[in-house]
Amino acid sequence: xxxxxxxxxxxxxxxxxxxxxxxxxxxxxxxxxxxxxxxxxxxxxxxxxxxxxxxxxxxxxxxxxxxxxxxxxxxxxxxxxxxxxxxxxxxxxxxxxxxxxxxxxxxxxxxxxxxxxxxxxxxxxxxxxxxxxxxxxxxxxxxxxxxxxxxxxxxxxxxxxxxxxxxxxxxxxxxxxxxxxxxxxxxxxxxxxxxxxxxxxxxxxxxxxxxxxxxxxxxxxxxxxxxxxxxxxxxxxxxxxxxxxxxxxxxxxxxxxxxxxxxxxxxxxxxxxxxxxxxxxxxxxxxxxxxxxxxxxxxxxxxxxxxxxxxxxxxxxxxxxxxxxxxxxxxxxxxxxxxxxxxxxxxxxxxxxxxxxx
Length: 358
What we know:
It is a single chain. This protein is of the alpha/beta class and about 350 residues long. The chain contains 14 helices and nine strands. The protein has a three-stranded antiparallel β-sheet with strand order 5-6-7. It has a two-stranded parallel ribbon with strand order 1-2. A hairpin with a 6-residue loop joins β8 (about 185-190) and β9 (about 195-200). Residues about 1-15 and about 155-165 have low confidence and may be disordered.
């Protein structure tokens, strides 16, 4: 790998000499001159700097955006010194983050080491009641900080407890400008909890879905049933997978959540919620015709709600209290159109099964 990088650097120097500079300790003032050009935020070249040990010397590189590591870095101190070249933020030049390319895998493994960042200095525990209000907030200091503050007399105990009303959340508005997501990645430890890897949110979702449900048919079996669907959603949320985020990452806000999962995990074609609703109305008309006009109208309005907002609209009896369905009567009156509450739930359950039959 290192030889490949050296060959690539040689090619760059030959084809774009103004963009690449190589600095080693043997080059003295000449090398430092090239380094000074690389550090200058006002210059457009060079944009690539190759060096062996220079990154560990405390050199300030304000707009450094990428650090490529092509050798084994076993020292935690050396690793921190190297990546420290990229941690300088320069928002006036658009430098808000940087990327580490670790070709050996030895360097970024330090992220998983507890010594990299140590124990948190302060952690906060919040106790929330059923209504969602914060009733107690406990501020916990690390053992080292607590000992220091007790020694200086700043606190009497290492644990501080703050009681009080819930703080009002504030919404901030920005006038002008443009806000966008520049990158969306997931940092994940491997099976032994030591090596850190970075994957995109879509790839991360696809991998987790395939592990839980190896085939699309198996996922469909669980998703078609309203009860097991809740279990699917819960398992995904435990792994940090939310449909709102997945829809934003794939730029498919109108796609059905099931189709989103199948698309990213099994490369299946995408369908919108409305396409699924229209297919059911067209191909499963016999199911709808089994019911009276009043009951069939309720099922049709449920389909319309689903097409607009998603599967959450199938929650019974909550959805029956929302217009326009609520205009057809109270919950008992609507259930009577189907022959009772159990028959209503059965009809809505079958409606969902047919919705995901194909």
